[in-house]
């Protein structure tokens, strides 16, 4: 019997060893990791401008000319890598690598669709703008100033050819994108004028080198002005509509949002949420009415809500103090998060509040510019739009929109613990793919989620005014989706859009006008806020139910963000997989 058991043991041992050897031989994760590295290297060679934006400065001197040859090269890159992905069976990849696989695949398919079907290179002249990259070279201290100025000089060489290619590409552009291109390109001239001159004055370059730099800068300025003059004089009797239409919009939603829902489903959910928010706001309005008014509550509920919001909105900062108020509130948010132990905020990652650069003007009033994954210790900039030169009525309308309460919610969203915090975590993710191919829905959804999360944990002392203004702000997120879908698919007019935003979302006229402009200049991105928020909040509640008494909000936040800027549906899959109890192993 001993000999039999010994013989069986040898057979089992041999079988196990063979199984382990076979597992090692068939493990696709190691070669897939190598593939990802090769993919990233080729990505930067194909898109050197993108590399600069994420802090990879190996190709900064190269300005790609956006002509037909470049588009063919980009299509070849996408098709070749789609073929390469087929070598790695998805079922054999780890959870982390599965997510990276999906992100790469989505990028490649989206790139092909964008070039061959969307074709915005033909109808969106604002695609062509060189200023931001040059400003980054001057303002980011990735090398000494003299070397950066040399890169600046070399990169300028292709600017004339760049804009000549742009003129060749443009066919039947939209009026709205043409106007934006003119404004942003002219605004960006400051990079080649004042910003460059300031940098040269601080540099140790000799006078001859400075002269050559300024000579090439003059050529660059002339090329930009020539492009804007060409756009101004372009005969375009039948301009393309800025509206994408149902088919293109649905496809762009699929690639950009990466949601488990169709855009029609998200649109219907947004309509439902709008009605629910109106009910919550109506209840608060009735409870607060006598505090602010002596007259009876109007029978029209929406009118009553609007009247109360208008009354409370008069509490706001002075136009000259808008940026200062933001700067002063950042440490208040940090202290609250520490006190409530909601998430770790890394004090070594600076957040700098600054006036919005001219080349960014025209789309949003506040935004975050974060350092890329290759320069994790760089500054994160909170860009604040200026009201300089605004008429008094326009400035007042804007400030009522960003009143005492909503300005705090804006700072939660844009800075702490919203975009700034999430992007710091994203840059620390072990997956470079996730840091590079960040999913905008997760990024925007996190920022919206933190607004509610902060109030849930007592921020604002549960003041009904704060909750009312939060619901108004959240209603804006909901109406972003309704607006964008309605404009691009349902042919919403400007009048219908303003009615929705002012009378049903209780926004100020200046804010509504700005949102209409944004909807005419962008597509789908406005849906990312509501979609991401719903996915994150619903997942948190699901995860909380799964963990029961073991649920820890801070741990949930840090675990969730540790996966980088991946689509929420993939983060959910990985976290639930790790949280599920492991079944006991069967004994032989």
Chain-wise SSE layout:
Blueprint: H1 2-26, H2 29-46, H3 48-53, H4 68-85, H5 95-118, H6 120-123, H7 131-139, H8 145-156, H9 159-169, H10 175-187, H11 189-202, H12 207-233, H13 246-257, H14 263-292, H15 301-312, H16 322-340, E1 351-355, E2 366-369, E3 380-384, H17 392-401, H18 404-414, H19 419-427, H20 432-436, H21 440-456, H22 464-488, H23 494-504, H24 509-521, H25 528-547, H26 553-562, H27 568-579
Parallel strand pairs: 1-3
Antiparallel strand pairs: 2-3
Architecture overview:
By secondary structure, the protein is mainly α. It is 68% helix and 2% strand. The protein has helices spanning 2-26, 29-46, 48-53, 68-85, 95-118, 120-123, 131-139, 145-156, 159-169, 175-187, 189-202, 207-233, 246-257, 263-292, 301-312, 322-340, 392-401, 404-414, 419-427, 432-436, 440-456, 464-488, 494-504, 509-521, 528-547, 553-562, 568-579, and strands spanning 351-355, 366-369, 380-384. The protein has a 3-stranded mixed beta sheet, with helices on one face. Helix 14 (263-292) crosses helix 15, helix 21 (440-456) runs antiparallel to helix 22 (464-488) and helix 21 (440-456) crosses helix 25. Mean pLDDT is 91; it is low at 7-25 and 582-588.
